[in-house]
Structures are given as structure tokens and as C-alpha cells.
């Protein structure tokens, strides 16, 4: 499976919201699969991933989400750097989660996600808190 850095945080707080029905169905499937099987190997990237696959903002493999003020690639890189993983690395989902628990903090997350439209719901930060 391929997952971009910032989606690791989105997945923590996923509560069935998303851009459209197809997007939600796909993300729900991915989140459930990873929740049930920490042995799944993930390649971490800073571009489109398996969640973007069904996104209406994905145009030929490029994210054209105009509501995002920040560079999404920079958000991916910032998340991965914070949890000590390099773009292109592959590892088990359970190992990634262990790094998130160890290195990701609410402050770091609030900084990286400061301009995200979904932030106001508070779901992602709640997801991080629930890991502890
Ligand atoms: S908005 Fe962009 S980064 Fe987010 S899922 Fe869609 S294509 Fe991927």
C-alpha cells in the first residue's frame, strides 16, 4: 500500500467524512484494513497515494485541491520528518504507528495542519490523543 505522509494523521481522525461518496468509501476501506492488520507494508510518499486514488481533486496523479493554502507535499514531508521516516521508505503499519506514538505531538500536528480545512473538527488531534 502507498500512503502519503499527512494522510497518516488524517487516518487517525477519520470519522466517515470526505470529499465525496467514492472518496469516503475508499478511505474507509483503507482505514479499516490497517486497523485490523498492522502487518500491512506501507510505502511512505510525499505525493499521491491510495487514498488520493478516489479523490475528486486528483487530476492525473496531481492534487489540485485549491482549498489548501499550504503545499501538500511540504505537509507530507513535515509529518514524515517529525516521525523519523524518509519519503520512499517502506515498513509495517504497526511500526509507523509506533513512531507516531513516540514522536508526534499535538503541538507539531497543530503546526503542520494549521491551515487544513478539516482541522476545525478536531477529529485528527482527538485521534492522536486516543493513541495515548
Ligand atoms: S485533496 Fe489532494 S492530497 Fe487530499 S486526498 Fe485529494 S488528491 Fe489526495
Automatic annotation (TrEMBL):
- Can you say what this protein is called? Iron-sulfur binding protein
Q: Which Pfam families match?
A: DUF1284
Amino acid at each position: 500500500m502507498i500512503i502519503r505522509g499527512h494522510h497518516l494523521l488524517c487516518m487517525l481522525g477519520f470519522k466517515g467524512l470526505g470529499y465525496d461518496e467514492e472518496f469516503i468509501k475508499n478511505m474507509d476501506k483503507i482505514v479499516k484494513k490497517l486497523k485490523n492488520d498492522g502487518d500491512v507494508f506501507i510505502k511512505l510518499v510525499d505525493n499521491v497515494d491510495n487514498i488520493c486514488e478516489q479523490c475528486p481533486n486528483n487530476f492525473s496523479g496531481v492534487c489540485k485541491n485549491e482549498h489548501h493554502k499550504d503545499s501538500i507535499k511540504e505537509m507530507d514531508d513535515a509529518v514524515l520528518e517529525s516521525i523519523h521516516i524518509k519519503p520512499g521508505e517502506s515498513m509495517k503499519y504497526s511500526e509507523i504507528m509506533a513512531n507516531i506514538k513516540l514522536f508526534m505531538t499535538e503541538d507539531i500536528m497543530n503546526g503542520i495542519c494549521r491551515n487544513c480545512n478539516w482541522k476545525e473538527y478536531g477529529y485528527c488531534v482527538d485521534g492522536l490523543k486516543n493513541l495515548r
